[in-house]
Each structure stands twice: as C-alpha cells, then as structure tokens.
Amino acid sequence: MNILITAGGTSEKIDNVRSITNHSTGRLGKEIGEHFLANGHHLTYVTTPQAVRPKAEENLTLIEIETTKDLEAALLEQFKQQSFDGIIHSMAVSDYTTETTMSEEIFIEKLAATLAKQPALSDLTKLTEALYLSLDEIGKTSQQEKKIPSGTDRLLLFLKKNPKIIAMLKEQQPQAILVGFKLLVGVSTEELIHVGQSILAKNNCDFVLANDLEEIHGDQHKGILIDAQGQTVTAQTKNEIAQLIVKKVEEKWRN
To answer: What is the extent of the structural domain holding 152?
Structure first.
C-alpha cells in the first residue's frame, strides 16, 4: 500500500522569532508509521520540525512543514504526484493563524480613526456594525516588524480561521482510506464517540480515532476507533492504537 501520514503539530508565526503552536509530539503518528513500514508499505510522512519521526529507511519519504498553509501546499503537491491507498491524518493542525499584531496604543488609534469617519453612531446596531467593519479593516493591517517590540503593556494579536485540512482529503483522494483524529478534553465516552461520529460523517472518513487528553499519559493512550457503520474498538496504548489502525486499514484495502 501507498500510505500518507501527517503527524506532529503545526505552528503559526507571530513574527520572525515568536509563534503559536500546540503540544503535539507526533509520537502516535510515529508509532503508526513504524507499523506500516514494518508491514512493507511505502510511507510518505509529513511532519513538523520539533516532532519525532520514524527512522530513515528505503520505503520512507519524509516531508517537513511548519504552518497550516505549508501543510496544505505540501499535500496538494503530493496529490498531484501520486495516488494514496490510505491517509492517516493525525497531525494537530492549528485552528487559527495570525493575521496581524499591534500594541494597545496603535489599536486604539486605528479604531478611533476608523470610527471617526462614520456618521453618528448613537444607534447600537449601527455602532456594532461599524465596530465589526473597523476590526475587519484593522485586522488586514500588514505586519511590518520582523520582531515585535516588547515595550508595550498589552499586545493585541489578531487571529483568523485556518482552512480545515481534513475536509479536502477525500475530495483530492477519493480512493484513499481516510483515518481522521479528534482530541477532546474531559468529556464522557458517549460525548467522545458522538463528536467522533460527527467528524467522520462531515469529512467522509472511513475511521476516526477519538481520544481525550485526560486519558493520555506517556505510552498510556486510550483511543476509540470509530468506523463508518458506527462500530467502535477501544485501545489503551499508542502501540495498540497503531496496530489497530494498521489492521483496519489493511483489511478495508484488501476488501
């Protein structure tokens, strides 16, 4: 099989020395990748600089990215070049990217200047609309500083929503067996399965691995694999999850 795995956690630049990221280590993706490689499959592994990854070998192609935009570009390039039998999208992708950053003083100056151009804003609806338009305009301010000065007491960071990478995977590779991942924190098993099923249906996944951050401690990693028929299988460690995913993907591919 020709397998694609995404693993690790993306980061979004604030300036040339600062970024927003998450705590994903890529350990689960590495474990899954190593099991696919051990079974003789070819693996394209897309990961981030700080994440762990499988050891170099003949059947492994490694691609390194940082931002969600980088990830999207790398995947689209791979999809032009080859067809995948399975896609394991375990990467923790940033929901938001930075739009611009400015000090409290500059923000207030820009907001005041924008609102001053508006007619009388005593009407609450008109004021609310004007504020939304002003924030949209300010948010598009180009980030000039390569390193944001640290002298301001309050720094305003504008974030905008990233595209959902998982949403485009089946569109680009409809033949691929797609495994999505969903991480929640402190929810019931019922809620975990319910949200996992919604992710599966929304993104046309074949499987979704639903897990709770409070159930992850080192190698102990409780995960519930949900298939398109709503059936679930629970694993208790990263190794068990990896074996389960490889087994289910291989079975579906053979059938």
So the answer is: 97-160
**Residue 91 to residue 72: CA distance in whole angstroms:** 12
User: 């956690």: which residue's tokens?
Assistant: 9
Question: Do both 171 and 247 map to the same domain?
Answer: yes
Residues in the chain predicted with pLDDT less than 50, given as ranges, are none
What would you report as the CA-atom Rg of the chain, rounded to the nearest whole angstrom? 22
**CA distances, 228 to each of 78, 91, 192, 201 (Å):** 26, 21, 15, 8
Tell me what pLDDT residue 147 has.
65
Position of tokens 């929503």?
161
User: How many distinct structural domains can be found in the chain?
Assistant: 2
Backbone angles phi and psi of 244, in degrees to 5: -65, -45
Same domain, 91 and 169: yes
Same domain, 249 and 171: yes
Residue 141 to residues 52, 106, 116, 145, 209: CA-CA distances in angstroms?
36, 11, 18, 12, 39
Dist CA 41 CA 60 (whole Å):
9
Please report the pLDDT score of residue 121 as a whole number.
63
